[in-house]
């Protein structure tokens, strides 16, 4: 598949003609507006919208938006770096027409992710979607490796009638219980219908552990499309929930105690149509490169948490013995391991084998998370990094000496600690580039300052409805 070109003033080749035809088709279908979406450094999805009649103009010349959003916090205050955070300048948002979809949960609207460039036509160095596209393209060029990825979406459903800012679970039926599916069957059925209408292939939709919690798992795509799909699925869940008098919460911690919402990443590396995580002669069928890819992720995981678990609320979720994966450890189908090696059912391994990275939540910008995970894994491939000893069971049971012997170190227990690790990780910072790396650090430090002195319940409340 040919990689999508960076946008340019006048439009990507063929896009203006394509957008003109699309606009006419969408208008005939009753679509009156296009949602242009991107995810900021704090993990909040931001949008601009244009009338359907303006789609061709957006494809040609983009839509204006200030670069200040790259240093917005989740509470909409602004921090700054030496490059970003001022009121000066403008960017152009260019829709990816290949990912445009009519929104089944919002009649009259279509949706498309955007790439951002400067008014002068240069790549915007803080555009996370462009960053991921280039990471993927560079891996194909330099290593002849492509990737498939999927992001699980967990959310808790509250009643829209709850007092402002409070969370009242829509159901208290048991975890994974049939009662929960029966109570909300109409809602879940409409969600499945909406996903199918939007071309989202759903693997599973089921009640999860916490009160009112559900999870949807979707099919794997190339990493950019997988990140797009994660944003689209959440847009759809919000819309369908609202139509049923419900409110979806994607925050990693809905309350100060208990299990939160994850956004586990599934990732596999491929070459010439062959899955590098299956059919090899190493552990559980992995090839040497697959083992080193997993080892690279483990080696960088303490720093990666600043990207994959970017909110102060993330660290209310990242606790031992809650299947959140808070140690630098891997295991075969071990749900307490931060990197779970999945081999798949017998007969399906060639296409199903993958890595599940667990210390990820939906406060993470999915483009940054996937791009940094791939960069970390490729660092392991380039250095032929050995994969350490496998763990079984819960790593929390190890003594300090046993943990050190297995390389099972506790991941950062706070966002401040994660930022410290990130600031020292030259490989991740180089992959992001100085502008985007500095934005990540500045936004994280801003979030830390925003909740300084708050107790756990107040931290959860501060981020409850932000993502």
Can you walk me through this structure?
- The chain is of the alpha+beta class.
- The protein contains 15 helices and 16 strands.
- The mean pLDDT is 95.
- The relative contact order is 0.13.
- The strands form three sheets. Strands 1, 2, 3, 4, 5 and 6 form a six-stranded mixed sheet that branches. Strands 7, 12, 13, 14, 15 and 16 form a six-stranded mixed sheet that branches. The protein has a four-stranded antiparallel sheet with strand order 9-10-8-11.
- Helices cover 37% and strands 18% of the residues.
- Strand 5 and strand 6 form a beta hairpin.
In short:
37% of the residues lie in helices and 18% in strands.
Please name the defining characteristics of this protein.
six-stranded mixed sheet, alpha+beta, single chain
Summing up helix and strand content along with how strands pair, one would put the structural category as: alpha+beta
Task: Return residue spans where pLDDT drops below 50 for at least 5 consecutive residues.
Answer: none
**Percent strand:** 15-25%
Write down the oligomeric state.
single chain
Shape from CA axes? globular
Termini, distance in Å?
32 Å
Q: How would you sum up the major sheet? A: 6 strands, mixed
The helical percent reads 25-40%
Number-wise, the strands total 16
Radius of gyration: 21 Å
Mean pLDDT over all positions = 95
Q: What's the total helix number?
A: 15
